[in-house]
């Protein structure tokens, strides 16, 4: 299917970030799967880091719902990506790929928190990309709480807020 410029402008891309394999909890994985399903139902396309943990969970949910999930991989091998991705992009730049994920997202859902997710949240804050959190723990840096994540009540709330923020951002950018 070929999309016109106005069709593409109506589509929103939602980044989903969170701990990878070995760091994400089973609950975070399941939340990510639910978020993926709900994002597809809401008309969103998903961008993630393409590896395990939360990233695999969201890709699995997107696949189950028949949507598109693009994984931006840190390395040079597509085989590094999880089995549920629709598209695996080999960035070959390690964790610097986090900036690509943020730049490619109209809004972000963060599930869980660790150093990698904090970096992406800070990048999003700097670039004006709205971030909605599930199972998010506020972070303090130099005695100051890092703001920038709107904590959502549940996956449906996070998705509704992210899609609304993304649509507003797409309209503003026209």
- State the major sheet: 7 strands, parallel
Could you spell the SSE succession in H and E letters?
Answer: HEHEHEEHEHEEEEH
Helical content class: 40-55%
Name the strands of the widest sheet in spatial order.
4-3-2-1-5-6-9
Mean pLDDT: 91
Number of beta strands = 9
Q: Would you identify the regions where 5 or more consecutive residues have pLDDT less than 50?
A: none
Protein structure class: alpha/beta
- Strand residue content: 15-25%
Distance linking N and C termini: 23 Å
GO cellular component, one term: cytosol
Protein name: TIGR00725 family protein
Organism: Parafrankia colletiae
InterPro entries: CHP00725, LDcluster4, LOG_family_nucleotidases
């Amino acid at each position: 299917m070929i999309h016109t410029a106005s069709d593409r402008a109506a589509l929103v891309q939602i980044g989903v970030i969170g701990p990878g394999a070995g760091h994400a909890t089973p609950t975070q994985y399941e939340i990510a799967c639910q978020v993926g399903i709900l994002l597809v139902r809401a008309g969103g396309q998903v961008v993630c880091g393409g590896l395990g943990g939360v990233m695999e969970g969201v890709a699995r949910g997107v696949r189950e719902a028949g949507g598109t999930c693009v994984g931006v991989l840190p390395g040079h091998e597509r085989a590094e990506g999880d089995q549920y991705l629709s598209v695996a992009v080999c960035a070959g730049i390690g964790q610097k790929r986090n900036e690509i994920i943020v730049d490619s997202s109209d809004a972000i859902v963060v599930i869980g928190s660790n150093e990698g997710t904090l970096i992406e949240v800070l990048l999003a804050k700097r670039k004006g990309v709205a971030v909605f959190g599930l199972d998010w723990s506020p972070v303090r840096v130099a005695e100051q709480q890092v703001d920038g994540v709107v904590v959502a009540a549940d996956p449906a709330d996070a998705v509704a807020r992210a899609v609304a923020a993304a649509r507003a951002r797409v309209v503003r950018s026209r």
